[in-house]
Write a structure and sequence with these properties.
- By secondary structure, the chain is mostly helical.
- The chain is 68% helix and 0% strand.
- The chain contains seven helices and no strands.
- The two termini are 26 Å apart.
- The model has no long low-confidence stretch (mean pLDDT 94).
Length: 117
């Protein structure tokens, strides 16, 4: 779907008008159809012009380390690898092996799409 900026802006206004101060349950069937149509336009435009890229695996690992209060040594123990290898991974000096990638997914609960990118 090719969407112009004008169509996008118009659709944003329509979506705002339909939803401001209202719940989805309060919309008529006609309004729900309008809402779906215009949100599809907004989504298509934003996907094309404002794509959201996945964060890097290293950034997500560092975030998870912060959330779990882990130091590199703790992460190494959790993933059953050496602290040196963790340092190499986090500094981009070494690629993560498939075995370690599986452990990252399972033990750190990091989405496989982020790991595989």
């Amino acid at each position: 779907m090719i969407v112009s900026k004008e169509k996008y802006e118009k659709s944003l206004r329509v979506v705002d008008q339909l939803l401001v101060g209202r719940s989805l349950d309060s919309l008529s069937d006609d309004e729900k159809v309008q809402l779906e149509f215009h949100t599809d336009i907004v989504e298509a435009y934003e996907k094309e012009y404002y794509p959201i890229e996945l964060p890097s695996l290293v950034d997500v690992i560092k975030l998870r380390m912060f959330e779990m209060n882990l130091k590199q040594k703790d992460l190494a123990n959790l993933l059953e690898v050496s602290a040196t290898l963790i340092s190499q991974y986090l500094n981009g000096c070494s690629d993560i092996t498939l075995d370690v990638a599986k452990k990252i997914h399972k033990k750190l609960d990091i989405d496989a799409d982020i790991i595989l990118q």
